[in-house]
Every structure is written in C-alpha cells, then in structure tokens.
Write a structure and sequence with these properties.
Layout lengths: L5 E5 L6 H12 L4 E6 L5 H12 L2 E7 L2 H6 L4 E5 L8 E8 L2 E2 L2 H13 L17 H10 L7 E3 L15 E2 L20 H10 L3 E4 L6 E5 L2 E3 L1 H12 L5 E5 L4 H9 L3 E5 L3 H11 L3 E3 L5 E3 L8 H8 L6 H6 L5 E7 L5 H9 L5 E3 L4 E4 L3 E7 L6 E7 L2 H16 L4
Parallel strand pairs: 2-3, 2-4, 7-8, 7-9, 12-13, 12-14
Antiparallel strand pairs: 1-5, 4-5, 5-6, 9-10, 10-11, 14-15, 16-20, 17-18, 18-19, 19-20
Helix pairs in contact: 1-2, 1-4, 7-8
C-alpha cells in the first residue's frame, strides 16, 4: 500500500477499511486537523469514514474535488483520496503538508506509526464528516487565470467537479468505474479529443483521473511535456527565472531553456521529488515530461487545471509550430532486469562523456548523443533512452546503452 510519496493499491486487497482506520490513527500523531477531498472512485467514502474513525481529529471535508484543489487548501495537513491514473479497481491517498506533497521522510514517519498499530484495535464508527467545500471550491476557481478557449477532456474524473469553468468539454460526467474513458491520458485514450482538435480548430487539454497532470493535443497530435515546458519558458517566464525539469527531459530542451537566460535544474523523475527541488531552489516552475506542471507562485503542487488555464490562450497550431523547433530524435527501449548502478556509472565514465548525472539512474552527455538509463519506480525494469540529432546516432547510442546494461546486471 505504501509508496515513497503516496498510497495506492487494489481495493479489498492492499487497500481496506481496516488499514485506512489504522492509517487515520497514525496520521493523528502528526496533526490534529486535516483537509480531505476525494475523486469519484468507488469506495472513497467508505475509506474516508474508516480514516476519520481512526483519526478522531478535526476534518474539513471538501467532497469530490480535483487533487490540486485539495492541495491548494492544505495549508497545514491535507489528504486527497485518489488513485490518480491507475485502473478503476485501485484506490489510494496523497498526503499534503504546507500545500505540497509529503516527502519520503514524512511518508516513512506515517508508515512507521501505521506499523505500530495493533490490528485488533480497529473500531470503525460512522465518522463520515459533513461535506462543506463550496466556499473553498470558489476560492480555488478564483485563483485560476482566465480560461480563454480550448477543448477540455475531463475523462469522467475529478475535474468534472468544476466543469463549469471550462468553455468546451468532453467526458464531463463523473464516471467512477471509468467505463467510457480510461483515467490515463495518452495517445490511445485520447482519440476523440484528437479528432475534435482537427474538426474544431482548437487546442485540446486532457487531464488524468485526479487532474494533477495535463496533456496537450494540437492538430490531432500529442505534445511532449518537455516541449510544453520550453513553450512556457519562452512565453510565460522572464530571463533570470528558474525551472526544475525531470531528468528524462531532452537535453535539447535543457539547452533551449538555458539559451533563454533561464536556469534549468535537473531533478529525479517523480513530481514530489521535483517539487522538493523546486522549493529548495526558489524555482518559478517545475515540469515533468509526463505532464506534471507546478507554477509555484500559485501553489507548490502539480496542477493540470492551472497549467491548462495559463496555456488556454494558445491558438490551434501554436504548439505544433513550436515543437518543430526541436529536431532531435529519441529512441527508447526497456529491459526487465535489475542493475548495479554503481557498476553502470563506472562503465559509462570509462567512455569519457562530457558530463554525467547520477541523481536518478545514469545520464551521460556525449558529443553525438545523450544517454539516459534509469530504473522504473514500480517494476524491476530499466528504461534506456537515447537522444541524438539523427536517428542513426540515436540508434548508435541506444546500442551502447543496451551493451552497458547487459554488463551491469545486479
């Protein structure tokens, strides 16, 4: 159930009422008041009731709202009951403190308290708090930039709670079982949005199940998250600003942003990791290639809705024209093996790259290509990415990466 920064699992297996009762009791040890919101997934109210039975503290219950809205109001302690983009049989929870995600240390502290709880002390009562979120929903909506135009795919997820703020919507009715649209916004799940952007000549904006991620579709094609970060840098930030980008963003994007006079910091993949780095560096924006964007002057958490509002003045074709400025090719393969990353680092350094980063896997910048080898956060799997100016050079670097991986098995 516990992951480094949140909790997720299949309801009835790793996620149960009894476990959430114990989780609530463990959370009481770190705070006596909490803000709670949920997405529309089945079983959320049952889990909120169990959590509150264990917590026995002051609860401000927002009801069904996007995760960024819960985070926005979590000035002390907050929890969003969501499994984000996972399949519908999953439930979960994301903790917030001071409007940002729990650190790994904070999650470890909750887990330690949870594991101390004797299982026989579970006494679930009727502790479902009254829903009282209308004013806080209004406060969040008022904090958003004006949403000017675009087609918004809400996927039947948490963004449906504030669907009135969007000018045009798709899948805007809550769909707790995700029967009509999967909660993961990717190429194969956004076919209708892709078609609509062509038919109506507008930019498409798609959210994941809890609306903390944003995917942009322009002229029927998805735009890479690192390209969007570069677009924001050029059009919405000033020289001297600071950004944090996930290590899997293309080196070409890093170089472009630095060329604008904006400092680009590298972070481990994973939105909580990036936000921790962004807060430490006083950054204006953190951006992950997968579609997490945090505008820190608004709130230090990933907010797909806020990012969409910022970008909603774009015209059809703007993102595709901008994307054409990035010429590099990226090839990706994966291996289902465990690696000795210390050995991998040594083997890479023997090749004398221009620079090496080891904060999340190994990233090496060579003359002809940039190679990134990193482990999956959820599986015994290694991803090998190679970026180069030509497909031939990218293939050359990818083959080197595969060879180095084979020689670095754990």
């Amino acid at each position: 159930m516990f992951r480094p920064h949140d909790l997720r699992g299949i309801y009835g297996e790793t996620i149960t009422e009894e476990r959430f009762y114990s989780l609530g009791a463990a959370t009481r040890r770190i705070g006596r008041a909490i803000v709670i919101g949920t997405d529309y997934r089945l079983n959320n109210e049952t889990l909120v009731n169990a959590f509150c039975s264990g917590f026995q503290g002051e609860v401000k219950y927002l009801g069904k709202v996007p995760t960024p809205l819960t985070a926005f109001h979590s000035k002390e302690l907050g929890a969003s009951f969501t499994a984000s983009h996972n399949p519908p049989n999953y439930n979960g929870l994301k903790f917030f403190k001071n409007r940002t995600y729990f650190s790994e240390a904070e999650m470890s502290a909750v887990k330690a308290e949870f594991e101390k709880r004797p299982k026989e002390t579970c006494l679930i009562e009727n502790k479902m708090p009254p829903e009282n979120g209308s004013e806080r929903i209004k406060e969040y909506i008022v904090s958003l930039p004006s949403i000017e135009k675009g087609i918004f795919d809400l996927c039947g997820g948490a963004a449906c709670a504030i669907k009135e703020v969007f000018p045009k919507t798709l899948f805007d009715e809550p769909d707790p079982s995700y029967e009509h649209h999967k909660p993961e916004p990717k190429n194969e799940t956004l076919q209708i949005l892709k078609e609509k952007t062509i038919e109506e000549g507008e930019v498409g904006f798609a959210f994941d199940g809890d609306a903390d991620r944003l995917i942009i579709v322009d002229e029927g094609r998805l735009v890479e998250g690192d390209v969007i970060a570069a677009y924001v840098a050029e059009n919405h930030l000033r020289k001297g600003a600071r950004m944090v980008l996930s290590i899997d963003c293309r080196q070409e994007v890093f170089d472009f942003i630095e060329g604008l006079g904006i400092k680009a910091y590298v972070s481990r993949v994973g939105d909580p990791n990036m936000l921790g780095e962004a807060i430490a560096e006083g950054a204006d924006l953190s951006a992950e290639r997968s579609g997490h964007f945090a505008f820190l002057k608004h709130a230090p958490n990933s907010d797909g809705i806020y990012a969409a509002a910022v970008l909603s003045n774009a015209r059809a074709g703007d993102f595709m024209v901008f994307s054409s400025r990035f010429k590099n090719t990226t090839l990706i393969e994966q291996e289902y093996i465990a690696l000795d990353f210390n050995k991998l680092k040594s083997l890479v350094e023997e090749r004398n790259p221009e620079s090496v980063y080891t904060l999340d896997g190994v990233k090496a910048v060579f003359d002809d290509y940039t190679l990134l080898i990193r482990a999956s956060n959820t599986e015994t799997k290694v991803r090998i990415n190679c970026e180069a100016r030509t497909k031939e050079k990218a293939r050359e670097g990818l083959e080197l990466g595969k060879m180095l991986v084979a020689r670095s098995r754990a």
